[in-house]
Design brief:
Blueprint: E1 2-5, H1 13-28, H2 36-56, E2 58-62, E3 65-70, E4 73-78, E5 82-89, E6 103-108, E7 112-116, H3 121-131, E8 136-139
Helix pairs in contact: 1-2
């Protein structure tokens, strides 16, 4: 099994903001002492969701499948079914078990695609090409 850690560039900024905003609302809202525990739990849910996403995002290759996981988004792709990979590109709409931009768009089956952002795009691409050398690789120059 080959593991590929996720690129986590500047992602921790979001959990911090997600934690601070509900707490500011909580402490500035009148009558907040009435539902203290409820407000604290409800206000911290976005923070815990983002922390779960941050620590669970991972990619690995096992048994000719590319596995991906990011919190509740999980799946696997048969590497033989991959048609094309686009390196250093960002998918703005669709399935994105990723935490950063300029990752890899993987097109498989006929119309399915998923966006992943490993720490090293080239190492994941090389590992995929070792299993399926018929994958078309499109390199996007970074600007």
């Amino acid at each position: 099994m080959k593991k590929f850690p996720a690129k986590k560039k500047r992602f921790l900024l979001y959990p911090i903001v997600a934690c601070i905003i509900p707490l500011v609302i909580f402490f500035t809202h009148e009558g907040s002492e009435k539902h203290l525990w409820f407000n604290l739990i409800l206000g911290s849910l976005p923070f815990f969701l983002l922390i779960w996403i941050y620590f669970s995002t991972a990619y690995w290759i096992q048994d000719h499948h590319l596995h991906y996981r990011s919190a509740f988004i999980r799946g696997k792709i048969n590497i033989i079914r991959i048609n094309e990979i686009q390196l250093n590109k960002t998918l703005w709409v669709g399935l994105k078990p990723a935490l950063a931009t300029k990752g890899i768009i993987i097109t498989y089956n006929r119309f399915d695609e998923v966006y992943v952002a490993p720490l090293s795009n080239t190492s994941l691409a090389k590992a995929l090409l070792e299993i399926n050398p018929h994958i078309e690789v499109k390199q996007t120059t970074s600007s």
